[in-house]
Design a protein that fits this description.
Helix content: over 70%
Shape: globular
Order of helices and strands: HHHHHHHHH
Structural class: mainly alpha
Strand content: under 5%
């Protein structure tokens, strides 16, 4: 990977793209131009491309929850983890505010590009849904991008993108299936909607830590040195 400064730029750009395209697809859905499958594919494709493009630069993390999972298992240093999280949050904010600037308010306001709980869904269940969805994502990250013994290491971006797509198809109607605090944070700041904010922080971080520790403990312990 590149030095921390260059890696941070890569994480900013990748997260900016995720929010600009992903939140843009949610806004299109809210305005009747795209269905759930389209939203899922938009997120999955942009993440697959961005992970593939930045994997050799920053590891293609693009998610504070994934960064924390890597940090907990010693795959990412504390300094780099903190720098990545800041870059990802800033990239998310930039992507969301550019969308807000470009799209007419009459079209932007109904969706806002953010995540929301389905009516009647308790916050506790929302947190659990986000945790399980993120568990699948981070397990896939470790099984492909981190563990190079498998046959899909070189196509990790595609695998990770497909996990995002199937998670959104299954759980998008209930929580938005953000699986990523940055994916929630950028649109939340742009719209000023902070309702149930802990769902998209606690859920993804908890799911990421469980998946990372499980994969590292069962499959990777004593097999690999820590990633710088």
């Amino acid at each position: 990977m590149e030095n921390t400064g260059k890696a941070v730029v890569a994480e900013f750009v990748a997260t900016f793209a995720l929010i600009f395209v992903g939140a843009g697809s949610v806004i299109a859905n809210a305005n009747g131009s795209l269905d759930l499958t389209g939203v899922a594919l938009a997120h999955g494709l942009v993440l697959a491309i961005m992970v593939s493009v930045t994997a050799h630069l920053s590891g293609g993390v693009v998610n504070p929850a994934v960064a924390i999972g890597l940090w907990v298992t010693g795959k990412l240093s504390t300094v780099r983890t903190g720098a990545y999280i800041v870059a990802e949050l800033l990239g998310a904010v930039a992507g969301a505010f550019l969308l807000k600037f470009l799209i007419p308010a009459s079209s932007f306001d109904p969706g806002g590009g953010g995540a929301a709980l389905a009516p009647g869904l308790p916050t506790g269940k929302g947190i659990l849904i986000e945790a399980v969805a993120t568990f699948f994502l981070v397990f896939a990250v470790f099984g492909t991008a981190v563990d190079d013994r498998g046959p899909l290491n070189k196509t990790a971006g595609l695998t990770i993108g497909l996990v995002i797509a199937f998670d959104i198809m299954a759980f998008g109607p209930w929580t938005g299936a953000a699986m990523n605090p940055a994916r929630w944070f950028g649109p939340a700041l742009a719209t000023g909607v902070w309702t149930d904010w802990w769902v998209w922080i606690v859920g993804p971080v908890a799911g990421a830590i469980v998946a990372a520790v499980l994969y590292w403990t069962v499959f990777l312990r004593d097999k690999e040195p820590a990633t710088p």
